[in-house]
């Protein structure tokens, strides 16, 4: 919870109090808020991530160097470089992303009145086009935000030799003397927004997985009385997440290692997805097109290569 360490710089209260209060607020929203309300809040919070883009422009990067690095990236066959590549893959193509996306499709269908399994079976061409559009928009937006985060920190911190950053709070503070107070403030605001988005996604995602594994009711449309074990899992995971902040972990290193673990799980999952989406017994007429297969196999091969490269450099 990187937002926890940064919040104390905005609110003059002890960090443990802030962490507990924010966790309680998010948990209360998940229990008492309707799915429609939660979805609306998520969408508005996502827009607040544009603060990262503003921070990147305020950093006044060398535009020629930015364009050159974007079009012709420098690639190193080293453990450090490939570790970050695999970690980035793990945060953008991770298992919880697939699970969250598919579960939110179900939640949207329930919100549209399709409350039974039979009503939700299959998908019309219109529904698939809507889903495809949502995914394209969401993935494009998230990757642009990641690009601006890398740009803002690379053009300032890395360019000035500040590579030993342990927390997001330090990153935001370090930006101020280099890019100005506004850039540091906007970067911090983005960090907090990410936290408010990520915590409910992670906790609810874990609850979805648990509910589906043991065959119990698991939906944000249900009340706590209707799905007590589902919300119990959300509560337990929230407590664990808050508690981990007090164990002395280096947040940045923990995030990188979590990304690497997720990154190693991505190649087999992508392979499984490609095989499933080409199986007519599963997909019917909605199997992948030739163009989609080319992109899917190239992506899968690239992800496998990054993981194998990291393994190889770890033993060289």
TrEMBL record:
Protein location: Membrane
Principal subcellular localization: membrane
Transmembrane segments: 13-32, 44-61, 81-100, 135-157, 185-208, 229-248, 254-274, 294-315
One GO CC annotation: plasma membrane
Top-level taxon of the source organism: Bacteria
Keywords from the named record: Membrane, Symport, Transmembrane, Transmembrane helix, Transport
GO molecular function, one term: cadmium ion transmembrane transporter activity
A biological process term (GO) from this entry: iron ion transmembrane transport
UniProt-listed PANTHER family: NATURAL RESISTANCE-ASSOCIATED MACROPHAGE PROTEIN 2, SOLUTE CARRIER PROTEIN FAMILY 11 MEMBER
Descriptive protein name: Natural resistance-associated macrophage protein
Source organism of this protein record: Rhizobium sullae (Rhizobium hedysari)
